[in-house]
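Hi X.,

You mentioned you wanted examples for the new student's onboarding notes, showing what a folding record looks like when two proteins sit in one file. Here is a clean example. The first protein comes first, with its sequence line followed by its structure tokens.
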Amino acid sequence: MSNDKIERQIQEIEEKLKDLKLALRNRSSEQKPKKPQKAKHWYPEVGDWVRITNPAKGQAEEGIITKVNPKSGRATVKTTADKPIWRAWKNLVKQDPPK
């Protein structure tokens, strides 16, 4: 192959690449805007006062964290009724302790 043929092939490939880049830009601008990201979940610590978002029937709705298991993503909450409840972190909301 001569140098002229190689140079023409390179130019053709560069033109195709430009077209593909333009098509990609147009496609990304047509996509729906991304939803805003939620705030990262807090990591509970022993002694945090929390509200339980999914208490079972007859269970208290708030208490103090007594144990935290980072491996399972769960915490034990000693409720106001002095009974322990084991819940996932996503079902606990940190709040100020009662006065």
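Then the second protein repeats the pattern, sequence line and then tokens:
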Amino acid sequence: MDNTITTYWNCDVLNPDYTGSLTGEALEEQRVEARAVTGRFGFVMGDEWGGGLFTPYDTQRDLECFVKVILATGSDEVFREQWGTYPLVMEKYEVLYEIITEKLGVEL
């Protein structure tokens, strides 16, 4: 049985506003692990309640998290490098990228 979700206790490291104790290489290592948990389900962040990892509680929160991560990543290339192996994430990203860049005129 895959126990990744039950053993990974925290995904707040994916929040661009992370203020925890991890920095530098240790922070990036945790982010890679967290991406492996959330990314395979199509999420770029999750909500943590009572010590457990949960998906964003509604589509509005998922959208807010996605846009926040896209903008914080700083470039299309970096986002693809970090999340490109997660098809569900990339599917959402392609839709949002088009809306943000072409319809809203924001350069990423």
